[in-house]
Automatic annotation (TrEMBL):
Cell compartment(s), UniProt: Membrane
Biological classification of the source: Bacteria, Bacillati, Actinomycetota, Actinomycetes, Catenulisporales
Comp. bias regions, Basic and acidic residues: 296-306
Organism: Catenulispora pinistramenti
Top-level taxon of the source organism: Bacteria
Listed InterPro entries: RDD (IPR010432)
Domain RDD: 17-146
Stretch list, region Disordered: 270-325
Transmembrane regions listed in the UniProt entry: 23-44, 56-76, 108-129
Protein name as catalogued: RDD family protein
Presence of the UniProt keyword Mitochondrion in the record: no
Membrane topology (UniProt): Multi-pass membrane protein
PANTHER family: SLR0254 PROTEIN (PTHR38480)
Keyword terms, alphabetized: Membrane, Transmembrane, Transmembrane helix
Amino acid sequence: MSDLVIGEGVALDLRLAKLPSRALARLLDLLVQGGLLGVLAAVLGVVESVGALDDAVLAGLLIVMTIAVVVGYPTLLETVTRGRTLGKMALGLRVVRTDGGPVRFRHALVRALSGIFDLYATFGVLAVVTSFSSKQGRRTGDWLAGTVVLRDRAPDAGVSPMGMAALSMPYPLLGWAQQLDLSALPDDVALSARQFLTRMHEMRPDVAARLGHELASEVIRYVALPPAGTPPWAYLAAITAERRVRQMRAAETTQREAWERAQARYPAYAGSPAPTALQDPAKGSQLPTMPPVQDRVPDRVPDRVPESASEPVAEAEEDGFKPPV
């Protein structure tokens, strides 16, 4: 998953394009470019046979057409289609800026020019090396242009009602989760926990228990231990829900501060209501804003999650916590 954050402070839930899909898209583009060069060369051959131009002019035209196909083809298409060539369209890929915004002419031109060196001059070796050395799979042209390639078409990530229920905060862990430090939790680990919670009801009980224990053991490396007796699924659900609440609160605060700065800079907007939606510049869609998040600290926090609905919930000590084991 990507760690792109747009200007409004919202993390984009987008999938990075892998090297095989990018290579296949490049191969399709090379086939198209080769076909264009073949047609143009055939036209030049006809002109040469007629004798309308001398050899020097034909050589110059051949160089110009080659540059137009090699550099102009990706530059024009990525500018017009906002980051997509024919090969990327076929594979469902898109080039965006590192801040999640759409690419412009200068980004597409830098990527196309750098492709002469890291794709053609080195037969793709430089592009492969730089892609493997980057967490986001960025080749040399992406580094110079400040871009990254994403999967524009991702599988349907619909979550069933049972999966949504599994993502809710377990109330006995509410106060404990609010005081956690989640800054060290990697995005890929958090995503794995979320995907497990939304699909665990579809798994066999033994498989769900094993995967839940493995994921909880991985999360414990970055987050504090849960209260004694907490099941793995409840531990993961509490962290996932709290992480999402903090992201929504940060996005809301960032948007409000940006609107206040805009009102101070442009008096014409003073007193007008803040926007009701956040704009995703990568796709042009509207993301609904989140309602204000109220304080949710309960008076007392149980020290463990009950194993069943009939089991009574044990109350914690007066300080609201029980030391983890």
